[in-house]
Write a structure and sequence with these properties.
Distance between the termini: 14 Å
Structural class: alpha/beta
Number of helices: 4
Largest sheet: 6 strands, mixed
Radius of gyration: 26 Å
Shape: rod-shaped
Helix content: 40-55%
Amino acid sequence: MKEDIKRGDAEDINVINPNSKINSQTNSKSMPPKEIVEYSTRKLLASSEISLWLDSYDDIFSDFDPRPYPDRALSDDFLSEAKRASKDKVSGKVVLTFLIPNKIRNLKDERLIRRRLREHFNKHYQRMYNEVQKVNRQGFLFMGIGIIIMFLATFIAFSFGEEYLFYTFLVILLEPAGWFLFWEGLNLMVFESKKIRPERDFYEKMAKADIEFVGF
């Protein structure tokens, strides 16, 4: 299965072979023979954001899952290549194009596969979206509790000073606890959520993508 990504020129296309150990950039001279790829197909590849060459529909799915297309797990190779290719797409709608030999095309199977892909991408996008929201809520909660604890420590220090050993001990105990919770909450909201966002953004792009099958 090969993947072509538009680089801004119809004659400059990246060809990615997920089965090979080295992915290299090639121009139109290194593409498949002219009798296989016609001019209309070249134009489609150049205008598409992500294009995949398929030997069969099974290339999209896991080899270890024997279930029918509506329930079958997607291939890790397909997902990893799609993630890498989608990084070039900063904004706007992604077009995911599958090129498949005309002799094996099946419109019924294509409808089922299209539905399965949309279901997978929407499900994982919702999951990652909820994960980001959960991390942000937890970070906000930690920050809020930290601020309250620091305010309490300040109130005790201002009201009682160092006259009482117990209140002095509370201030010593509460101040670092408040700072810890505040900075841990800030870390969750800024850094931890940032680690999840690329995965969420990928599934968001793919959930909104136009999925097309084109024979050659």
